[in-house]
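Reviewer 2 asked us to include a model.

Predict the structure of this chain.
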Amino acid sequence: MTRVANPAYCQVKDCPQRPVSCQYFNRGSPGEIVVNETTVELSSDGKASVFSFLDLEEIMHLRCVCKSWREAVKKTNVPLLKNFCVDSSQKYNAISVMRTELPTLHRITIDGLGDGQKWSDGEDPIDLYTLIGPTPYDFGIISAFSKLRELKITGNSFVSGRHPFLFSSFPLLEILSIDLCHGLKWDLEMLAGFPILKELECTSGFCLTGNINSLRVLRETLRKVKIHNCEDVKGNFMDLAHFPRLKELDLDGDTAVTGDIRDIGENNFLALTKLTLPRTVYGGRGYEFQRISDAPELIRTLYLFKKQRPGLAMLVKWYARLSDDSPDRYPDGHQLGPGGGSHRYDSVVKYDAPFDVCFVKAGSRIGYRWESDGGIPCEINWLDPEPRGGNYLKRLQEIEKHVETYKGFHQPPTEEEYNRLLENGAMPSRYTRGWLAFLRSQGVFSGGALRSTPRR
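Predicted model (structure tokens):
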């Protein structure tokens, strides 16, 4: 069909509009008559696919357009990047609607509701938390989101007691984070309800119990395990040694987990890139040894292990310390109070004998040194030979400029040497006066005479 050169009207079939006002004017190819297009109605799944690119608030607004859009919203596959945080009564009301109108939500964070409100208690709640809010909000409301992939529960939520639905309602859950929830009671065995769980984080879970060997049901899926300060979690960390996808194992803080880093063989923890073990494990962060002479062997064990696994992050922030009941310890500290550098904390004692040991790195060279609780260092004991070039010398100067008080000491001074440093004023002056005053009050330092132990 031939198209005229200068049409007086739009060439869309049966369109009476003039060219100036017609949005379809001159569409198509020259020489053709453009046939009026038929509107194509997207299917419910097609609408849901389009809606998935929008924000949660926009998606919820679209459900009000018409019935077909409302049904499409229910099918919308909300991307994992979009998290809904329930941190107010208004957000609670919103999620109450979402449980029927947008049940495909993938990420939820449970936080404090504010205004003195609290989530409903579970079975056997802790009394402390039952007194916080007068109007409980139904915590079980989140069980409607069966397609949840990520769930975070914060300490501000004050969730208390046992909530069995948490571990039976989300078969697709991949990330579980429970942070500072002191009153939430659960056991590691309950994680069997998450068959594809990839990441587990729990910090300060005072009511968390169980043995880490319970995680073996997730052997093929777990990539990250972070359990901090959960005192009733026990077991041997080597129970996780054959998890093929485990990249991060972080058991820092107070737990009952035990083990020995020397038990790790070349076929264990093959995918691991980050390792932090508790002080109850030989070689763990904060491990306590009985004698000063025990430290070099411990350090060398970790050093050789690091050489075998150069890509493993484990020495950063690592330290060990001489046990408080060690026969090598002696009274050390500076009373911070009147005359000691503080006018507010009269009972605080600052420990300055170097009874902690940590790793030091200058360029590619690794060594270790003793430090006080207040960070006053001794000289470095190098484990690697001196390298050539690079930024080694610059970094070495930065490290060594802090060695003042214990210059010449490669390990903690004896008690006699330590007290002599105090007497000669080698300690930072703001601490020394207070510590000497404390020694005098205990009868340890008097008229130039030093006793080995304070008078009880």
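Residues 295-308 form the longest helix (14 residues). The first strand starts at residue 84 and ends at 86. We have added this to the supplementary material.
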